[in-house]
Amino acid sequence: MSTEAPEPLEVLIGHLKRVRGTDFASYKPASLRRRIDKRLSEVGVDDLQAYVDYLEVHPDEFNLLFDTILINVTSFFRDPEAWTYMAEKILPTIAPTAAQGDELRLWSIGCASGEEAYTLAMLLCEELGEDAFKQSVKLFATDLDDDALDRARQGRYDERAIEPVPTELRDRYFEHSPNGWLFRGDLRRNLIFGRHDLTRDAPIRRVGLITCRNTLMYFDSEAQRTILARLHYALQDPGFIMLGRAESLFAHHDLFKVVSAEHRVFAKIPAVNARAGLLRMARLGSEEVHAEVNALLALSELAMDAAPAALLLIDAEGALVSANVRARAMFGLTPADIGRPFRDLEVSYRPVELRSLIDQARQSGKAIKAPFAQRGRPDGSAQHLEIEVAPLGDRGARAVCIVFADVTEHHEIQEDLLRSKHDLQTAYEELQSTNEELETTNEELQSSVEELETINEELQSTNEELETVNEELQSTNEELQTVNEELRVRTADLNRANALLEAILSSLESAVVVVDRDVLVVEWNAHAEDMWGVRSEEARDADLFTLDINLPVEELRAPIQAALMGTMSQPLELDTVNRKGQPLRCRIVVGPLSTPGDQIVGAILAMTGIDGA
User: Which pLDDT value is given to residue 12?
Assistant: First the structure.
């Protein structure tokens, strides 16, 4: 029996989990494949199987791949309005925990290089004061990227990264150094950076606030549900979670409620657990026991009297031990009847024979229901009763409880219903037809609701995908800015070199001509323009032997070819005329033009008039 071969993406995911212990199976396939394709193009590999082979040969590629997949796009005070809301509304709610000296725990998920964690630390210091922050706050910051965590632990940032931090906060919480801005060490001790996999590792417990911004959107819906359940478990009561712009918890209304939809802040909905009452146990003296028993009996009597039905309690010997107020009124029982054998009382056989039912209940150990009974009231009206005999205690000799429920109103209603049945039958048929129409409409509405929910999920997924692409574009833009800065520096160096070359050529007394290996003019200085009457713009990129000048250039062919072979020829003296038509004896020196690596790339011709023409 053949089995289908796994997809190449699954093979790569399995390889990463097996070799490096990082599982990307819960990530959205489209986003994951796009990031991996970016890495494939950078290393020049055509397909995923070849890339797996490449990883085995180049173990350093793992870190570069993880850097590409785990998009570390972050900054201080990212989305400033959300952080303003956090500082004004949420932190004052959880701050009293630390102000009272209790430990306040917070968790920054997907912290990357740490900007978000340090942002939260600064806001907490502003809310609590530095002393309370040092004594009572633990801020956990986690990520999958070990290199990013190393940078976060250092807390060092350059001028560009620190720019979003307000000046007063920067001066208060950072120390300036030649290598950038360093977050204060005495406050940095309260931040704990570590590697954590949301899909596999146990959550950090008893946290008052979780920031998980633009992290959930990389996971599929099933992984998101699992992660959110863990985060709900991690939060204390009350507890808050702050998400990114493209994320929401509207589909998880059983776990979190919306605090601010605009700023993506949600609060934990506490889990409701049934708590059994504990039985109070104590050692008491005899007088205390007596008082306790009397109190319990009085409480029991009150409880029986408060019952909505008539109750009789028969002990194991068959004596009536208790009757609540409704039973006494219903059957005319008096205090003298308490303790009498139940079989001697009228209620034992009227309105229904109860003695046999009591025996059945004691033998079976189960509650027995008697048929509906009817009895006359003193006012002549009929009363209908539902009677249940329930055994109490162990098998054999059991006490029993007899419950008389007054169902007169129910019986009357049922008779009214029977009388109305004939009239209702026609209406029922019409109602049935209407109900079928309503069911059809309801099914259509349900289908529409499901379609809308599907569309909403697709829109949410698309929004998350767009946010992911946006972060990728931002990451690419930062790379382009870095390349552009390097290009600007190199362009400036090149401009300075060209200016220096122009100055050197202009300062020479000789006419200087530089040609490449194809004898095309590369440089033509001002003295050459003055001597031969051809501007530099006209001469550049032209074949030297085709230029319309008075110099017999054909006689230079051999020296130039020798120079291109690396040989310096003897100076030549040629008779010619200059641009003014005056006779000129020109002394020409031809030499090779080579690179620092001794590669011949052209020839240099230095021309000097020796007749002074």
Answer: 78
Residue among 84, 241, 109 at smallest CA distance from 169: 84
Handedness of CA 63, 66, 71, 76 (dihedral sign): negative
Is residue 569 within a helix (H) or strand (E), and if so which, with residue range?
Answer: none
Instruction: Give the chain's radius of gyration (CA, Å).
Output: 47
- Contact (Cβ atoms closer than 8 angstroms) between residue 47 and residue 84: no
Residues in contact with 338: Cβ distance below 8 Å, sequence separation at least 6, in sequence order? 320, 321, 322, 323
Do the beta carbons of residue 138 and residue 104 sit within 8 Å?
Answer: yes
Beta bridge partners of 524: 513
Q: Is 336 helix (H, G, I), strand (E, B) or coil?
A: helix
By CB neighbour count within 10 A (0-12 exposed, 13-18 middle, 19+ buried), where does 549 fall? Answer: middle
DSSP labels, 276-302? PPPPP-----HHHHHHHHHHHHHHHHH
pLDDT digits (tens, 9 = 90+) for 260-316: 988 889 999 885 432 222 233 233 233 443 454 455 556 666 777 777 888 888 888
* Domains annotated on the chain, with CATH: 8-69 (no CATH), 80-268 (3.40.50.150), 291-410 (3.30.450.20), 507-609 (3.30.450.20)
| pTM score of the predicted model | 0.52
pLDDT reading at 90 higher than 50: yes
- Looking up tokens 């990114």 gives 244
Cα–Cα distance list, 296 to 137, 289, 292, 293, 302 (Å): 50, 10, 6, 5, 10
If one counts every other C-beta atom within 10 angstroms of the C-beta of residue 490, the result is 10
d(CA 505, CA 494) in angstroms, rounded, equals 16
For 432, the token pair is 């049935």
Q: With contact defined as beta carbons under 8 Å apart, do 156 and 87 qualify?
A: no
Quickly list H helices, 255-354. 286-306, 325-331
What is the identity of the amino acid at 378? P
